[in-house]
Design a protein that fits this description.
Belongs to the ExbD/TolR family. It is a single-pass membrane protein; Single-pass type II membrane protein. Keywords: Cell membrane, Membrane, Protein transport, Transmembrane, Transmembrane helix, Transport. It is found in: Cell membrane. One of its GO terms (biological process) is protein transport. This protein has a domain at about 50-129: Nucleotidyltransferase, domain 5 (2-Layer Sandwich), CATH 3.30.420. Strand 2 (about 60-65) and strand 3 (about 70) form a beta hairpin. It is built from three helices and seven strands. It is elongated, with a radius of gyration of 29 Å. About 30% of the residues lie in helices and about 20% in strands. The model has no long low-confidence stretch (mean pLDDT about 80). By secondary structure, the chain is α/β, with parallel strands linked by helices. The strands form two sheets. The chain has a five-stranded mixed sheet, covered by helices on one side. A two-stranded parallel ribbon has the order 1-7. The protein has helices at about 20-35, 80-85, 105-115, and strands at about 50, 60-65, 70, 75, 95-100, 120-125, 125-129.
Length: about 130
């Protein structure tokens, strides 16, 4: 008669997920810290001064440089921007962020064109000092 000694069954080693969770957490923190929250402005704009401290609100932002150049998201130039604004839903708010050095005549000439493109709600951004 032969007796076989039974060996205790070995359990497979458990996977340790803590290092992987640490790496994923560090990557998450890295990407959150380096990501841009808002897209960069197409050109530097110094808004005119204001006496009120009212928030601008949310909406599409139209930039006007000191030279009078227009930019809306990735669009440049008056014709393309006005065509894009015509395709927007009516009643949406447009935020006009113009440089302080832009002549008032330039803004005044732009406003009827924006109205013809269907813009009914317009806000002018200014800095509060």
């Amino acid at each position: 008669m032969t007796f076989e000694l039974s060996r205790p069954k070995r359990r497979a080693p458990r996977e340790n997920f803590v290092p992987m969770i640490n790496v994923v957490f560090l990557l998450l923190i890295f990407f959150l810290m380096t990501a841009q929250v808002a897209p960069p402005e197409p050109f530097e704009v110094t808004p005119p001064d204001s006496a009120q401290d009212t928030p601008a609100g949310t909406g599409t932002t139209l930039f006007v440089s000191a030279k009078g150049d227009l930019a809306l998201n990735a669009l440049r130039g008056e014709a393309g921007i006005l065509a894009h604004l015509q395709s927007q839903e009516p009643g949406s708010e447009l935020i006009l962020r113009a440089d302080a050095r832009v002549a008032g005549e330039t803004i005044a000439a732009l406003m009827p064109k924006l109205a013809a493109a269907g813009v009914t709600r317009l806000k002018l951004i200014s800095s509060h000092r």
